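Quick illustration, no need to memorize.
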Amino acid sequence: MTATSPRLKHEVKDLGLAALGRQRIEWAGREMPVLKQIRDRFAIEKPFAGLRLVACAHITTETAHLAIALKAGGADALLIASNPLSTQDDVAASLVLDHEIPVFAQKGEDNETYNRHVQIALDHRPNIIVDDGSDVVATLIQQRQHQIADLIGSTEETTTGIVRLRAMFREGVLTFPAVNVNDADTKHFFDNRYGTGQSTLDGIIRATNILLAGKNVVVVGYGWCGKGTALRARGMGANVIVTEIDPIKAIEAVMDGFRVLPMAKAASEGDIFITVTGNKHVIRGEHFDVMKDGAIVCNSGHFDLELDLKYLAAQAKEVKDVRPFTEEYKLKNGKSVVVLGQGRLINLAAAEGHPSAVMDMSFANQALACEFLVKNKGKLEPGLHSIPVEVDQEIARLKLQAIGITIDSLTAYQIEYINSWTSGT
């Protein structure tokens, strides 16, 4: 049931959860020193004073620190969930009560509620949109063209969102600047690889309590998320099979020591299937039909469409909950397939998402991307813009400093050498 607050409008599950959320947010902050330094600077400089900001994100302890940093910078911020199963209700409650940030998100909200929350976000008439999957931006372009004039720009967190933004730009409908946070080195090298790798297996284990050692784990897609997932699964003793459509990534997977098979063959060999492609129906009916009895299927890409769950439901004689976030589909062919987290992001549906240490860098990029948009208001062309290299390197430098690691620097002689084409010796 939606709680009410005398202070601001919101839709969260229960404000009584705020104390637990506060405790968990504080714990996450121990691993987020870079974002804390940015927040402290924002509190002094107020780069977002007078600006309305909407963030569509997974409402987690780490996202809370991003929201708090943006508000410290003067933003009139509002949060909605980017995924119906990714909200941590205690965190949402704490953001409302302790930080007076309006949040419209509840774990398990249906698609109708999710879409209504997107409309509420746009009712805020944002000057900046922090997006995760580009749903808010897409809705703005499709339904509220008149509000684009209010927009300084947007930032995008995910590979899926970047793919959508590129399609928008090709079609000529992306008429404002959008910052590609996902492709910053301090984001995808760490968040996508180490964050997704660890948190995906965390979600699978919490949902099932199975032993991964000795299991055949099929990782569908070998981008940065797939690399991290495959690496972590092998580290826990699994026999990892990779499926790919990109020949270069397939060769990379082979040279990293993994078996590479087409899905048509991997489908009959796998015990656990993890999709991380960002595409639609990468596991389809013909794959479900040949899976082992009891095969476990889950998704760690952005949308649940990676799995053709409509086909699976049509083939099922019975669907029952066997554990939290674990559904068994008993099929007409006599076998069963187990689906985790309703096909949604398993690392957030059944676990807590990425560890705070990697999100520290990801959300440092988000915070500085918002500042970049404001500093360059009116100067940026429509379309996608990369995080400046110097910002990326500064985030890495701050992270190393926070964890007590120092590195070498070039001498004046070395700088002269590498910048000269005549220096042969």
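The radius of gyration is 22 Å.
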